[in-house]
Amino acid sequence: MKLNNLTSLDPIEKARGIKGLSGASKLDREIWDEFENNLPALAEESEPLLEPDAVEPNGPSEGLSLTKTRRHQSFFRRTVLETYQYRCCITGNPLPELLRASHIVPWSQSEELRLKPTNGLCLSATFDAAFDRGLISFDDHYRLLVASRIAKQLPNEELETIFLSRVGKPLALPEKNLPSYEALEWHRLNLFVS
């Protein structure tokens, strides 16, 4: 009932035609006003309550940190995307904002292959995520393989459209820097969840 009292004070819910209960007290109004007008401080207080294992944040909501960065990553990205003429090798998607230069053998696994364009595929964001997690891979003839876990989600029209309708279809190969057979085999053996 308390939440319904607070709902009656919420302008967004009112605009949707949801009234809540009419018994909101003076304290309910004070709590609502504090929540509306002091959200950053309340977020800082509530975060440790919502995630008890999390470290309690203090201070501003942003800070500086020292992190390891991947040098020359932009070179790899540009080379791979240019190799595939800025198109996803599975879907043909031409939107650069949605394209990723995917490492076949992950960056962390081989320093030697990190910048080699033959260790890269131009994939749209969804396929990049699936490839990184081993939900898709490619056979020796560059045909799409899809993990059985995806097929088990049927009937699911979206998975059928996005993944299963493309099973066995070859990726669009570039004119140069063909994906390395050895790298694709490594991916199938070490990441693919057949």
| Mean pLDDT rating | 85
Low-confidence stretches: none
Strand/helix succession: HHHHHEEHEEHHH
* Count of separate DSSP helical elements: 9
* Estimated structural class: mainly alpha
Taking strands numbered 1, 2, ... along the chain, how are they ordered across the largest sheet?
1-2
* Biggest sheet layout: 2 strands, antiparallel
Number of β-strand runs? 4
Helical content class: 25-40%
For the termini, the CA-CA separation is: 50 Å
Write up this protein.
It is elongated and about 70 Å long. The longest helix is centred in the N-terminal third of the chain and has 12 residues, at 26-37. 18% of the residues are buried. It starts with a helix and ends with a helix. A hairpin with a 5-residue loop joins strand 3 (136-138) and strand 4. It has 194 residues and is mostly helical. The protein is built from nine helices and four strands; from the N terminus they run αααααββαββααα. The strands form two sheets. It has a two-stranded antiparallel ribbon.
